[in-house]
Design a protein that fits this description.
With 700 residues, the protein is an alpha+beta fold. Helices cover 43% and strands 22% of the residues. It contains 28 helices and 26 strands.
């Protein structure tokens, strides 16, 4: 700083020195007078303390000797400039010899130079620290990606960061520059009815008044209707400045995060292939519909007939196209209040509000009509049908699981009645379902609890009239329902896969019984039925070999029976397994021949030893068939001879049927006319009594 002033009168008359020394002696700043050669002519007490020398020693000394420094140091130049220019000089400088900051002011007065020295190191250091801290804070603020502002206690914006200043007004009040009243802008927005702005005002006031440690809010600013703009999401956060007044406010763009969360939430409740509501969403929909007071709720459960064949023959990609097309068709046939969903596979569900049972029937008709038009998929034209079950809410339905379970049961029953059927769930069906559930529950432990037993139906060799074998027929003594016939539990065992462990048990039981009979002198072959499910499991060969390895039975005395229908399901797989079993000596029989639809090529390819003619061909003429039973049975016997297979007539109920079987050339026969199924002990006793060969071939 440089000043030019005219000396007051008391300076001009020479009395200034006396007055100056009198005034400057007691002050805390170091003051000295210098002559034209920069020698001390007077110093005050503060200067003595600063230089650590008494005035008597300093007077006459040159200034530079007391403050040695490199030539041309800024403070030296400042002092010289005061004398040469006659103007006041002011400078703060860092004095390296003492490693401190000083302030120097030089005032020329006539021929003298008045110099003030003051140690400003503490103040200068504090200023630099504050400046560095301020710079750091500013750098940190500007580095923050969130739009950040610091408010005073009255809500006025004190400062903002670069992101705030350079960003648009999206996501924050329009009045948002330094000096604007941020809180007032929020209040103005809340006055328009914006609920988020009202919550922001309340939260900010609580933080400003120190009634809350912080406040945060996720919000989406309204967009202009019809503008086509995509809504954004922001996270507002406010917290007090630590150790001081004011509040820090940040606005962070969270649009990507919110949309990702919304997308994940949508995907968690929708099927990825058809984009229809999935099981979880359907459960929520049914729960909500049941809670409403809007009339009964009907659930429709739809399953595509033959969908597995579409996947197997045309590939899963075509199957996916079918499901997508079906989802579109179903959605187009519903009311606006109805919800179409996919449970998985080819199972679809429609939830219909305010829909009673008769309306549910009409709904089922409407959805069956969806399949009237063939599906054009990947250049293939498919004509398909569906099985549909419906269930309508009543007091027994306390939740979505109950309604879905009943609709599923009705669909299952409809599918059992044949393709392209629909059925409404009734209490009678519920009772049947409960019976089935009990069968499933107890069947799991039936073999382990010795509830299963075997009845044996003899097989008679017709040319000799001798009982040469018997068929093992499993029976179940249900703990609550008593004795059950195979038809009452074998289909359930096949559906649940429990037929495999049951067949393993039956194999061991049959082989053990055959050994027991042989020990009593009765050499009988035992036949065990094999399910298509067991064939599909891939364990049949190992299971048979394991059962034979545990006993000493000749493999040729074990006959495995496979129905013609089971053969038709997967002939190649069946042929491969039975061919391997025959290499181990096990015999194979094709059961119920004539009741299925397998081709002669499939029958001829099966490495079988016996053709068991279905009882329908043995009993008499088929409906609407003009061919005599003797001709049909004779044709089968001739086919067996051509294929080098023995022919067994099953279901022989009368003497005439027995005579017919013998006359057309059947090798074996079995049926109630010869003997009903009996226990192993009973059969052994009859054989021991010598009734193995009689005129009528009747054992009991």
């Amino acid at each position: 700083m440089t000043q030019h002033t005219d000396p007051p009168p008391w300076v001009a008359d020479g009395s200034w020195r006396a007055r100056a020394t009198e005034a400057l002696t007691p002050i805390s700043e170091a003051v000295c007078f210098l002559d034209a050669e920069y020698r001390y002519t007077w110093v005050n007490g503060a200067a003595e303390r600063l230089l650590e020398r008494p005035a008597a020693e300093l007077v006459g000394e040159v200034l530079w000797t007391q403050f040695p420094d490199r030539p041309g140091a800024p403070w030296q130049e400042s002092v010289r400039r005061a004398r040469s220019t006659g103007s006041t000089q002011h400078l703060e400088f860092f004095y390296e010899p003492l490693d401190r900051w000083f302030e120097v002011r030089a005032y020329p007065v006539l021929d003298d130079l008045v110099v003030f020295f003051r140690d400003v190191h503490e103040r200068r250091t504090l200023d630099e620290e504050r400046a560095a801290e301020s710079s750091l804070i500013r750098g940190v603020l500007n580095a923050l990606p969130a739009r950040t502002a610091i408010l005073g206690d009255d809500g006025t914006i004190l400062t903002t960061n670069t992101a705030w200043a350079q960003g648009t007004t999206a996501g924050r009040p329009a009045a948002s520059r330094t000096g604007d009243d941020y809180l007032a802008a929020c209040r103005a927005l809340a006055a328009t009815g914006d609920p988020d702005a009202q919550r922001a005002v309340e939260g900010l006031q609580a933080v400003l008044e120190r009634r809350a440690p912080s406040f945060s809010l996720d919000y989406s600013p309204p967009t202009d209707a019809g503008s086509g703009a995509v809504g954004t999401w922001w996270h507002l956060q406010a917290f007090p400045v630590d150790g001081g007044p004011g509040v820090v406010v940040t606005h962070t763009d969270i649009t990507d995060r919110v949309r990702a969360e919304q997308r994940a939430a949508w995907q968690a409740r929708h099927d990825h292939l058809t984009e229809l509501p999935n099981r979880a969403a359907l459960h929520e929909t049914i729960t909500g519909a049941l809670a409403e007071d809007g009339g009964p709720v009907t659930v429709l459960y739809l399953d595509v007939d033959g969908f597995k064949q579409v996947n197997d023959s045309l590939g899963h990609s075509t199957g996916d196209l079918l499901l997508q097309e079906l989802a579109t068709r179903l959605s187009q046939r519903t009311r606006t209040s109805d919800v179409v969903g996919r449970l998985g596979g080819d199972e679809f569900v429609v939830v219909a509000r305010d829909c009673d049972a008769p309306a549910g029937e009409l709904l089922a008709h409407r959805f069956r009509a969806v399949f009237d038009e063939p599906f054009e998929l990947a250049g293939t034209r498919l004509s398909l049908t569906a099985s549909i079950g419906t269930a309508t809410s009543d007091p027994a339905h306390t939740g979505p699981e109950d309604l879905l379970r009943d609709a599923d049961a009705a669909m299952y029953a409809a599918k059992s009645d044949g393709r392209d059927q629909h059925l409404h769930f009734t209490p009678t069906l519920r009772s049947a379902l409960e019976d089935r559930r009990q069968v499933v529950t107890h069947l799991r432990d039936a073999a382990a609890l010795d509830q299963l037993t075997v009845r044996w139906q003899p097989v008679v060799h017709l040319p000799s009239g001798t009982v040469t074998g018997c068929e093992a027929l499993v029976r179940w003594e249900h703990p609550h329902r008593g004795w059950l016939e195979p038809a009452e539990f074998i289909p359930i065992a096949e559906e649940t896969g429990m037929i495999v462990p049951i067949t393993r048990w039956l194999l061991r039981t049959a082989i053990a019984q055959a050994e027991a009979w042989r020990a009593d002198g009765h050499d009988l072959a035992v036949a065990v039925n094999v399910s298509a499910v067991h064939l599909s499991s891939g364990t049949l060969v190992d299971d048979v070999r394991q059962a034979l390895a545990e006993r000493d039975l000749d493999p040729g005395d074990l006959v495995l029976e496979l129905t013609e229908t089971a053969l038709a399901r997967d002939p190649e797989h069946a042929v491969a397994q039975f061919r391997e079993l025959r290499t181990h000596g096990v015999r194979i029989a094709l059961d119920d021949f004539g009741a299925g639809y397998s081709s002669l090529a499939a029958v001829a390819s099966l490495p079988a030893d016996v053709l068991k003619v279905d009882r329908a061909l043995v009993a008499g003429p088929l409906p609407a068939a003009a061919t005599a039973p003797e001709a049909l049975l004779g044709a089968v016997a001739a086919l067996g001879a051509a294929l080098d297979m023995a022919v067994l007539a099953e279901g022989v109920e009368t003497a005439a049927q027995l005579e017919l079987a013998r006359r057309v050339g059947c090798t074996y026969a079995q049926g109630h006319h010869l003997s009903p199924p009996v226990t192993g002990d009973r059969l052994g006793a009859l054989l021991t009594e010598g009734r193995r060969q009689t005129g009528q071939q009747r054992l009991p």
